[in-house]
Design goal:
The protein is mostly helical and about 190 residues long. It has a single domain, classed as Four Helix Bundle (Hemerythrin (Met), subunit A), CATH 1.20.120. Helices cover about 60% and strands about 5% of the residues. It is built from 6 helices and 2 strands; from the N terminus they run αααααββα. The protein has a two-stranded antiparallel sheet with strand order 1-2. The longest helix has about 30 residues. Pfam families: DinB_2 (PF12867).
């Protein structure tokens, strides 16, 4: 895919994620935000806290990779390495396989409040700034360390795709948790 097309597509997707969280998840009650559809699933806030933990690392890593880049790099085809393709395929929203998360990225059991939503939205603003800074940069440059094994690096373009796909995957999960919370709240109560 051409770099300009990819960046425009990713920018649109981040704006959509931000709008979804702001309009569909932010208005929920604290009880709904913390509702877990099952004992092993995450609540809305746990899904977003998981993304916040990744954003704290990847937003800074991407900004660092783009800092000082020549902003006159011509539009170019953005490719994948084997590692980049594998990473992206693992987190794609349409990949229905569940994956065990790294312990320090797992928010299960954390005491979370509405500040998680605000932090998520702030991370989206930062990501939009990173995407803006990526215009004119070489997106095929290997410069973004992988969070769980920092000796390995992804290309800038594949790291951007990984981050956005990962966010889409878990925002969809948060929306399912919200739907379950609302269904549970509307369920009839049997009084005997």
């Amino acid at each position: 895919m051409l770099s300009t097309t990819l960046l425009r597509q990713l920018t649109d997707q981040v704006q959509e994620l931000r709008a979804t969280v702001d309009t569909q998840l932010r208005p929920l009650s604290s009880r709904q935000l913390n509702f877990k559809p099952s004992a092993t699933s995450w609540s809305v806030l746990e899904c977003l806290e998981h993304l916040n933990r990744y954003s704290r690392f990847y937003n800074a890593e991407l900004a660092k990779a783009l800092h000082g880049q020549n902003q006159r790099y011509n539009p170019h085809e953005v490719g994948f390495t084997w590692l980049g393709r594998k990473s992206y395929d693992t987190v794609r929203p349409d990949n229905g396989q569940q994956h065990k998360t790294i312990k320090h990225m797992n928010p299960a059991g954390s005491a979370l409040g509405p500040a998680v939503l605000q932090e998520f939205l702030e991370h989206q603003e930062q990501l939009l700034e990173v995407l803006g800074a990526a215009k004119g940069a070489n997106l095929n440059r290997k410069a973004v360390r992988i969070e769980f094994f920092r000796l390995l690096k992804l290309r800038v373009g594949e790291a951007l795709q990984f981050v956005v796909a990962h966010e889409q995957r878990h925002v969809q999960q948060a929306l399912r948790a919200a739907t379950a919370a609302q269904s549970q709240a509307n369920a009839p109560v049997l009084v005997v």
